[in-house]
Sequence to fold (514 residues):
Amino acid sequence: MEKKDDVQLKKIISHAKEYGFIFPSSEIYDGLGAVYDYGQNGVELKNNIKSYWWKAMVQMHENIVGIDAAIFMHPTTWKASGHVDAFIDPLIDNKDSKKRYRADTLVEDHIAKIEAKVSKEVSKAAKRFGDDFDEEKFKSTHPRVKQYLEKINGINERLKNTIESGNLSDLKDLITELGIADPISGSKNWTDVRQFNLMFNTQLGSLDEGADKIYLRPETAQGIFVNFLNIQKSGRMKIPFGIAQIGKVFRNEIIARQFIFRMKEFEQMEMQFFVKPGEELEWYEKWKEKRMRWHLALGIPKEKYRFHDHLNLAHYANAAADIEFDFPMGFKELEGIHSRTDFDLKAHEKYSGKKLQFFDPQENKSYIPYVVETSIGLDRMFLALLTSTYYEETLEDGSRRVVLSLPPAMAPYKVAVLPLVRKDGLPEKAREIMHNLKFEFNCQYDEKDAIGRRYRRQDAIGTPYCVTIDHQTLSDGKVTIRDRDSMEQQRVPVENVKETLRKSVSVVNLLRKL
Fold:
């Protein structure tokens, strides 16, 4: 029997294809694993997410600017960044199911199950004690919860040590000792853990012989770091300042699954914020708060989000946290906020022989800035919006409808213009209204089928408003505006339609919440 969450994800995948959001890549050739194409509605939603992020990050900050760095970079870039030597996943195969997994993820999922038990105990106690409940005291005194937390800390510490030391045999031992089974088959028959570099490489040159090996970038951050001096000098930027970028990245994910959550080709929205050494942790906390505010402004319930502080820090970080989202497959990473210290600029300075420093006139000295990074997966944000706004409901007349209750500013189309019938001059009037609206809003025109069916189609793609032109419009100059979520209708003069829509669908409404 399928779990409810699996059914929900399958519904999302089916809906995304049926309504032109996402298609398997090269589907007529049976597709390409873990690669997807965004359809006519998907690309609009994707562009709206990008626009909201860019405006919030660049337009709303005087000290943050954007770039668009090339995908191909000098190969030494990736040696300096550590990707050539350290961008490696520890993989393990199950001998019975023939499925491959990231070994560290299997352990982290096991930890998550124990954390769920802790949450369950805390919820039960909170209901029992009401306003007098002290969560921290409960966790430190309840015998079973204390045992769970000690177990979590022990596993985390051992996982950290195995990753840092590269002791793959101990990682295999940890999986065995914890009794971790294959999530699909339940088998515990594991192979040894092996390392696998995730970077794609290709040749730069006209012939393979003698051509230089280069890489498809596995992250956008390095394009920002190598342009630090160019941006700082040409923009006369003063510390603290940020550089933002949206771009495609490529990772040879052997175990990519869960729809667009983990893909081989995806997009990142990243900002690297350069600060004075010693001030990085203060800015780290500020950016954690700022980024959560950006998410919550969309109107998605707060309980869908949580922070997860990293216990196992990357070699370049002195603090790191994920904003996790409650996807159908559970809480998973959506965005990372990292205090990267001066690792990247220092490494590129060493390998390039160029000084990557900032001269501080107030202190009359030069220094390598520290960096606070915010990095969000665009495709994961797309999936978060799809999964959190998709719902089915039965109406009073017994009929059912499927709705994407997307925030109006994110919806692919802001308004659908619908003549009630295809005659009596209604299509002509509808076209006239459509022409007036399309300069400001992404509109869709639809005159096929009964008006109820057309409403259902717009509900399914997330269009927040439908403007219906009927016979009365020709005499009183008013149209009916239907709200997607409430299905309420109001009569509005044609000349007021644009202003009525503008109040509800503009991204400015989101930006003002920040």
User: Anything to note?
Assistant: The first strand starts at residue 22 and ends at 24. The two ends are 44 Å apart (CA to CA).
